[in-house]
Amino acid sequence: MQVQVLLFGIVADLIGKETLNFAIENNDTVKNLKTALRTKYPQLKNYSTYAVAVNEHYAQDDFVLKDRDVVAIIPPVSGG
C-alpha cells in the first residue's frame, strides 16, 4: 500500500522535497507514518510540532491510513 505525503514549510525544506510516495502496511496509523518518516529522514527527529491532515481533514495519531490516501504534513504557521 502507498500514500502520497505532501510536505510544507520547514518540513519540505528539511527533506528537500514537497511530495513523497511512501509505502505503508495494512492498518498503519498516522503515528506509524510519523515514526517511519523520522526513521527515513533523521533530520525530522527534532521536529515534532506539526499537524497532519488525511484527504484534507485533520487526523489524530490513531487514524488508520488506507491505500492511496493523501497525507499532508502541516508545520505551525506564525505571522502578524
Overall description:
- With 80 residues, this protein is of the alpha+beta class.
- The protein has a single domain (2-74), classed as Ubiquitin-like (UB roll) (Roll), CATH 3.10.20.
- Helix content is 22%, strand content 28%.
- It contains 2 helices and 5 strands.
- The protein has helices spanning 9-15, 30-40, and strands at residues 2-7, 19-23, 51-54, 57-58, 70-74.
- It has a 5-stranded mixed β-sheet with strand order 2-1-5-3-4.
- It starts with a strand and ends in a 6-residue tail after the last strand.
- The model has no long low-confidence stretch (mean pLDDT 92).
In short:
It is built from two helices and five strands, in the order E-H-E-H-E-E-E. It is of the alpha+beta class and 80 residues long.
Terminus-to-terminus distance: 41 Å
- Taken from the alpha-carbon principal axes, the silhouette is globular
- What's the arrangement of strands in the largest beta sheet? 2-1-5-3-4
Q: On the 0-100 scale, what is the average pLDDT?
A: 92
Share of residues in helices: 10-25%
Which architecture name does CATH use?
Roll
